[in-house]
Design brief:
The protein is α/β, with parallel strands linked by helices. It has helices spanning 10-16, 21-29, 45-58, 74-77, 122-140, 214-253; strands at 2-5, 19-20, 37-39, 62-63, 91-94, 97-101, 151-161, 171-183, 186-197, 200-212. It is globular.
């Protein structure tokens, strides 16, 4: 039995005896497979579908550890391109505790410009964590009036990397520790998010964040943005005036 990983993860495949998705498809098409396959991280959705269909047609077992293997979608992950969606839809496992599967495509924006060694980049884990806590807030607490597609503001994000994460099946677990609604247009959360692989917990994050109604926060954000730009322009004008005054002083001195 072999682990299937994304086509770009050739170093990992060569070092561990795994196989890339394209190579797995070719072997299945040629009916030259002994044993079965386990789908890991980095495999593109279209490749995974082909592998499952060919596996069924040739009698080769294709194991998928994820609950459903379906990405949560644009409105949940807050990503326009599906290849940047990193999680499945969160599912409730107990009161205020939720889990999702990490579903990484090797064309992900974070993977596109940085591949080092055999492990998954820390920024990829942070992005999966970010998508998880937004998704949990918007999909699991709608009964509190938490809006979908709202403005999400992070107040605190503390991440610890405990060991290397590899392109293998990964579960994300969020435990919500506190919920507050200081005003009717916003809900604040505190939570711990953990990422687990076969070797144990690979990363953990403590986060505090608030989800606002877009209509309530947007005007305030625009006002602050305009104020910031005005401050920059004043500083630039002051610097220009200083340069002109220094030039005049030098000419007089000369």
């Amino acid at each position: 039995m072999q682990l299937i990983v994304g086509n770009r993860l050739t170093d990992f495949a060569e070092a561990t005896g795994a196989i890339t998705a394209q190579a797995a498809i070719e072997r299945l098409a040629q009916k030259s497979v002994e044993g079965g396959f386990v789908i890991g991280q980095g495999v593109r959705d279209e490749d995974a579908r082909v592998i499952r269909v060919l596996g069924q047609a040739t009698g080769v077992d294709v194991h998928v550890f994820e609950e459903d293997g379906l990405r949560a979608g644009r409105s949940v992950c807050h990503k326009h391109d599906p290849v940047n969606e990193l999680i499945s839809m969160p599912r409730k496992v107990e009161e205020n505790v939720f889990e999702a599967d990490m579903l990484m495509d090797d064309r992900n924006e974070i993977m596109s410009d940085h591949l080092t060694g055999l492990h998954l980049q820390g920024m990829l884990l942070i992005e999966a964590t970010r998508q998880m806590f937004i998704a949990v807030g918007e999909t699991q607490y709608s009964h509190l009036g938490v809006p979908k597609g709202g403005y999400v503001v992070f107040n605190r994000l503390d991440t610890r990397f405990e060991q290397f994460a590899f392109p293998i099946p990964t579960v994300i677990r969020q435990s919500v520790t506190n919920i507050e609604q200081p005003r009717s247009d916003r809900t604040s959360f505190s939570a711990h998010i953990e990422l687990f692989q076969e070797q144990g917990r690979v990363a953990s994050t403590y986060v505090e964040y608030t989800i606002f109604e877009a209509a309530s926060l947007k005007p305030k954000e625009e006002k602050l943005a305009c104020k910031a730009v005005e401050s920059v322009m004043r500083r630039a004008e002051d610097a220009e005036l200083t340069i002109v005054e220094e030039g005049l002083t030098q000419r007089k001195a000369g």
